[in-house]
Amino acid sequence: MFGAKNGMCFYTVVAGPLYHKGWYHLFYQYNPYSAIWGNITWGHAVSRDLVHWLYLPLALVPDHWYDIKGVWTGSATILPDGQIIMLYTGETNESVQVQNLAYPANVSDPLLLHWLKYPGNPVMVPPPGVKPDDFRDPTTAWLGPDGTWRLTMGSKFDTTIGISLVYHTTNFRDYELLDGVLHAVPGTGMWECVDFYPVAINGSVALDTSSLGPGIKHVLKASLDNTKVDYYAIGTYDPITDKWTPDNPEEDVGIGLKVDYGRYYASKTFFDQHKQRRVLWGWINETDTETADLKKGWASLQTIPRTVLYDNKTGTNLLQWPVEEVESLRLNSTMFKEVLVEPGSVVPLDIGTTTQFDILAEFEIEPLIPRTTNEIDDCGDGAVDRSTYGPFGLLVIADASLSELTPIYFRPLNASDGSLKTYFCTDETRSSKASDVFKQVYGGKVPVLEDENYNMRVLVSKQYFCQSDMGVKNL
Question: In order of start, what are the domains of the chain with their CATH numbers?
Fold first, then answer.
């Protein structure tokens, strides 16, 4: 299948992904005893190609007072001398969130089978003004121009102001908290799983996390605990003051761009020094009931890893698409050319009996004419909700009677101000006949440049599908 999951038990947020001596390493929060939340431990899997995975023994287990109630997510930092630093959040015996240091017992081991915890843990504790359960998820560290390492992590002030704290360190054992914050956004609540990394504005290459200088912007991403949605913004980072400013305050973290419009949370990137790319992971928390999860013996999974770059055509967003290794899974192909789709029609395509496939589809429509209307400025009530120019797209995992299906579609429309907008949407309302599965319509606005056709890529598996638009703006 597409995506990574453990064959049993409860699988959650990705932690500390890295590339080391020919192997991609994926660590993840994991309950080894049941398919429900609890006993949070770090599982460990490795891959040569990001699509075929081998599961290894547990990497970190809750066995000290500072993490006895859970080894939560964290991040890896690879130092210039090749040493690997792993910082992670632990929940103490008194339910306080603290930051801890771990490192490989033998960094020359390509599989990194054994990990040691620093005897002086914890290395960071909640500072004054931060509640004991609002202090988690340290990022990969970056090296500043003064030779000092920096990292950030999520928290909140009062009850509603989401913040990212900044710490300095020279040895990863002793830390200094800055007086200010990297950034704060009122009304967004607790930030968790913060990610912070540079992007090249020419959009051609990915950058190491410590990259600074001209031609570089920085992405700040936060997972909002209140809504369980991942948001990001692009802006400017000042390494002297350790402040980050969004390019567009109206699309700040938590109020603007989403990393993904589907069931996707707690995402994390890492710089793949092997292929000079930035790779993004996200967690899919399925909507099966707890009873169903216990019956099947596992719950949730990771998305297909994606490559991330700055979109230098729009200058406002990121481009995401599945890593190139996914194409190695293709066995055969079928092409349909010049398929005419009349308004209101459904055109069946014979693809055999496969339940796992990779679809690339391009739609060409008549030129759109801007005009003022009262159309709903979003995905509407699903694929049955018509706009002036749509919706149009694909019906996947559909039965012959079309009573069970999942539409993935574009919805161009005339907004109330007369402008043209396009939404890329998924309608789950008929995706399953099961009554105990949560189903919704979701999606978001995507930029369509002049003279561009509408392109989508859809990866379908037995458990889930992921779709991307326009080659790709968002997933």
Answer: 9-326 (2.115.10.20), 332-475 (2.60.120.560)
Which structure tokens are listed for 271? 């710089």
Least Cα distance to 27 among 268, 337, 377 occurs for 268
Beta strands in 140-215 (DSSP E): 142-143, 149-157, 161-169, 176-185, 191-200
Residue 270 in tokens = 């890492």
Which three-class secondary structure state does DSSP give residue 208?
A: coil
**H/E stretch holding 13:** strand 9-20
**CA dist 72 → 13, 42, 93, 434, 449 (Å):** 8, 8, 14, 33, 42
pLDDT tens-digit readout, 415-438: 777 778 889 999 999 988 887 778
Report the side by side order of strands in the sheet with 176-185.
142-143, 149-157, 161-169, 176-185
Helix (H, G, I), strand (E, B) or coil at 140: coil
Q: Quote the pLDDT of residue 304.
A: 92
Written as six digits, the tokens of 414 are: 């005339």
Determine the residue type at 109: D
Looking at the DSSP bridge assignments, the partners of residue 283 are 265, 302
CB-based burial of residue 58 (10 Å sphere; 0-12 exposed, 13-18 middle, 19+ buried)? middle
- Tell me the torsion sign for CA atoms 228, 64, 76, 52: negative
Joined together, the tokens standing for residue 121 give 């843990």
pLDDT tens string 217-264: 999 999 999 999 999 999 999 999 999 999 999 999 999 999 998 889
Q: Is the pTM of this model over 0.90?
A: yes
Contact assessment for residue 150 and residue 216, using Cβ atoms and an 8 Å cutoff:
no
Structure tokens at 441: 């319509």
